[in-house]
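USER: Study each token:
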Amino acid sequence: MKKLRVIVLMHEDLVPPESVDGYSDKEINEWATEYDVLAGLEKLGHDVYSVGVGSDLGAIRGAFRETKAHVAFNLLVHFHGVAVYDQHVVSYMELLKKPYTGCNPRGLMLARDKGLSKRLLAAHRIRVPKFHVFPRGRRARRPKHLEFPLLVKSVNEEASLGISQASVVQNDAKLKERIDFMHETFGVDVIVEEYIEGRELYVGVMGNQRLVTFPVWEMPFDELPDGAPHIATARVKFDLDYQKKYKIKTHRAEGLSPEQEAEIAKLAKRCYRALSLSGYARMDLRLSHDGKIYLLEANPNPDLKYGEDFAESAHSAGVQYPDLLNRILGLGVSYQAEWKKNEVL
């Protein structure tokens, strides 16, 4: 790829320092993704400009104007602290007629709403856990099609917000208690779905029209305390001390047959297309003890930190980290947004 001028969009409080020297692992972890992406793009020879975005979208327009950037590398996952507003940020860039990396607005909207996405996937005959959505202010009465154990989580927030071992409930009293807790503590609508016991698998997908998948990755739960639900809680995902204590480190899934690998890759691509995704995404799945594969969530614009699931699975397929960033850039530049289509007409 030719040398590009790239603005890297990130939250204003996550703009990293020029060096990691003098910072603890926990401090570095806060802005590691931003640091790794900036360093990787610079290593590729691109002209790179970090742009911290707060509550003013004008910072993006100003950055494009000042740098004459060819593309924005988008690391924003919310705006005004609202997760579903990330779709409006990329919509704004489309209105500016500026290319950006990652998923398009429609795909973000469909994937972020876990209830809506599951309905769409089920309509495409993609197996998902049975579920029900409980909006704020609605009485927490369990529908008959849901049987315990059940998992309670936010319908549209990411990063395991509010997910803990208490999120898996075994009776109606605990179900009501947890729904009320999520409503009152986080102010979010809630989705309740059947808890699928089995292996937690992740699959990276890249592409706009032609799609590629990376090797299947797995989140191990073998070392968790006895009786702890095998779910990716906030502590499992982000607490470094907890990860070290219970040996939580994702790795390439072992013991899958070639047929299972092929089925999982095909399922990931079907989900990607059903939700109108573009750029890159990670599919979260469960392989149940009886061999059934369930699509849990689709995650557009997953974490690109060096050493995280997406980058590691790409690396195992022979795609080095800088090349991964270059491919993401290329997909952003080549994505056929509506404004590009109209200019051709």
Summary: Residues 180 and 313 are 38 Å apart (CA to CA).
